[in-house]
Amino acid sequence: MNYMPGTASLIQDIDKKHLVLLRDGRTLIGFLRSIDQFANLVLHQTVERIHVGKKYGDIPRGIFVVRGENVVLLGEIDLEKESDTLLQQVSIEEILEEQRVELQAKQESEKLKVQALKERGLAVPRADTLDEY
Amino acid sequence: MFRYPSLEECPLDEEEDGFQALGEEDEDIDQFNDDTFGAGAVDDDWQEAHERLAELEEKPTGSGQQAAPSSEDAEVLGEPEDALAERLTRLVIESELEDPAIMRAVHTRGPGAQTMALTSSIWDGPSEMPSVSVLDYALPQRPPQAREEERDPSERALPRRSSSPIIGSPPVRAVPIGTPPKQAAMPNFNQQILCPKPVHIRATMQQRYPAPYGERMSPNQLCNVPNSSLLGHPFPTSVSPVLTHLQRAQLLGGAQAGRISPSQFARVPGLVGSPLPSVNPKLLQGRVGQMMAPTGGFRAFFGAGPAPPSQPQPPPGPVPHLQGLRPQPFRPDTTHLHPQHRRLLHQRQQQNRNQHRGLNGSVGDRGGHRGSHQEQVRKDPYANLMLQREKDWVSKIQMMQLQSTDPYLDDYYYQNYFQKLEKLSATDEVHRDGPKKERTKLITPQVAKLEHTYKPVQFEGSLGKLTVSSVNNPRKMIDAVVTSRGEDDETKEKQVRDKRRQTLVTIEKTYSLLLDVEDYERRYLLSLEGERPALMSERKQKICNMYDNLRGKAPGQERPSDDHFMQIMCIRKGKRLVARILPFLSPEQAADVLLATARNLPFLIKKDAQDEVLPCLLRPFSHVLYHLPLGTVTSLVQQLTNLPQSAAAPAATNLHLAAVLQNKFGLSLLYLVLSRGEELQSTDGGAELMQDNQWTELMLLATRELLRVPPAALPKPVPPPSNLFSLFSRYIDQQKLNLLQTKLQ
């Protein structure tokens, strides 16, 4: 197996279905249509997939142009195996709600943690601002 | 400006000649207007007024002159259908003429010729578009009925413009020529189809209102004009066949494009399907433009294979069937789509249904492109959106970064890492014959980078310099001239001032020579058979240079003084340098270095007290020793024991030798030399007597000195060579030997 240097190795992945994880944590799934030397991507028929627990939901995003620097990882989706997933697809509304609930729960637990730390007189660890998306 | 020449160079008829002047005038006015108002700067209001006027005029006059997009026109011209077909074929031929100007000229001939020419001009566009293929694909897709409204106005308008010499003035043409910058690169026809549109329309206007109206319009406006004028004008439902095809192709393209943006779909079905009696002109006008525009990008599929609308159509099945086949708990995907879009997708799904044998993935949920991969690739109309050319470009850019004449220099760590990897996998293979693990290998460019030096263009007598700066030739910020003072006085001055610095420089220089020399082995392996001798001599030369640097040999001087060498040896880096250089030197050169070291060993030992790097010389020295003849070894011991001095005072304590013996390096070196000498002595029976005697004498001296040195003074960690005691046993009695042994243990 040989591969090309840099983003040129992506050329053979063009027109295949890809999952792209962005720096802000979003997950995109779409057909890779075009790339360039910076790994800027053009995704086609893109959906943004939100996973919450065992459920997931797809938000249609159409054509998605991703600036290369935001790509964390990128991989082809095996179309043969795509359908046999244990995850359950739900509607957008549902998944958004789930996401909201999850976020809320997370914040709650975070708050509790902070409180507990405070009671023990410990400094509250500074939240990584980058994590807020 | 380029339009003028084009006009002149085209094969003009007598007729055309007459009109040429007019055309030029038109162009002037056009240009003037554009300059004044800018493209698209004109108000919509008067534009519309023009259109209305244009329509009125069009009806009576237009039909006579133009090649008929509409059947009405065709009838007026009295052209039979086969004539049209012939026209088409000729169109194909003619479109090979890339020069729009030529095309234009052709149009202006007779009415018959006109039609042909104008048809072709629809296609010829500004670039070398292969009109053949367009037609090929366009023709079979003839829709049952097409309305004038649906048609791209360009087809309709075009003929008029071209037919009238006045109208055929250059500016009209110029618009498409300049417009789409990328055309040449793209095999997209639609764009080209699109672009000429404004032109034609404009032509129409000009024809009707030669000076005042036509030229005022910028290309942008022109785009809009035809549509509205078209719409206001009741066109007959039946259209001439040729146009229908073309039209159809465009419409299909438009529909295709519509997929991108669902909103555009709203109109498409109506357009394609049924005669659109009353479409809002404005809407349509907008639609057509929109729909056509995006199509360009997807034309590839048009040319490449089956078009989506006409995709390989298996017997269409019911939609529910599809859904039943694929058990998906939830299919929300289409919900976001425009209803029309969804409907279209459904239709397409039906068409494609049989092709998606796997039915894994949600076929059609989102445009029906989720079949198994091959299938998907095969029928994916959006596939190959990135042209091979563009892919090549990307890989070329990436490759360019890896191009290098000397990968070791440019990418040392990768090269070494990779070597390590290869070694690893090689040993892996040796050790276990399991399944051979394939390692991914980076493809690197085979072409070496061409080193080009940039020479700025210089004009005689000019003050400034012309420079073109690029990545490879960055602009020079300052062009300073280095004035070097006289070499001689400067170096002399320096030598006096700081000899040490000079020595450091010498060491640096020699190091780079050394690195070069070390590189030669690799280069030798990589080089071609023919280049090798040259490489070898180069290498030899560099080794000689290294030696000269080391010994500070001035030309003409037979035996260099040890001074320079000592300077180098006083510096830690210099010692290491010598250790590294020795293996490359010839035996004579190496021996010389060795002797010089031995001669000045006490001094060096004193200087090395802090650094303690002298021991690193042992290894190369021992290697060298094994290539030396007895004579040299003897003289080496002589130097070590500093015989000349000891000869003067034989009985006195030999300070030189004592110093040597009390140092780890010195003692080790002495052991090495002695054992080597003894080896030579024993093997080389035919040695000269004199040499033999000399050796014995030296041996005795060394042993005596060794005995005299207090045991505490002897450096401990040096293990004497195994043959040393048997060696000593030949020269001293048993008692002394025992003493020596205990001392050295």
Helical content of chain A (DSSP H or I, runs of 4+): 10-25%
Low-confidence stretches of chain A: none
Would you tell me the structural class of the helices and strands of chain B? mainly alpha
Principal-axes shape call of chain B: elongated
H/E series of chain A, N to C?
Answer: EEEEEEHEH
Which two chains have the most extensive interface, and how many residues on each?
A-B, 37 and 44 residues
Mean pLDDT of chain B: 59
Low-pLDDT runs of 5+ residues of chain B are 1-16, 60-81, 91-336, 354-371, 645-652
CATH topology of the domain at 6-90 in chain A: SH3 type barrels
Q: Beta-sheet strand percentage of chain A?
A: 35-45%
Proportion of beta-strand residues of chain B: under 5%
Number of helices of chain A: 2
Task: Determine the number of helices of chain B (DSSP H or I, runs of at least 4 residues).
Answer: 38
Nearest-integer average pLDDT of chain A: 88
Protein name (chain A): U6 snRNA-associated Sm-like protein LSm1
Subunit structure (chain A): Interacts with SLBP; interaction with SLBP occurs when histone mRNA is being rapidly degraded during the S phase. LSm subunits form a heteromer with a donut shape.
GO cellular component, one term (chain A): ribonucleoprotein complex
GO biological process, one term (chain A): RNA splicing
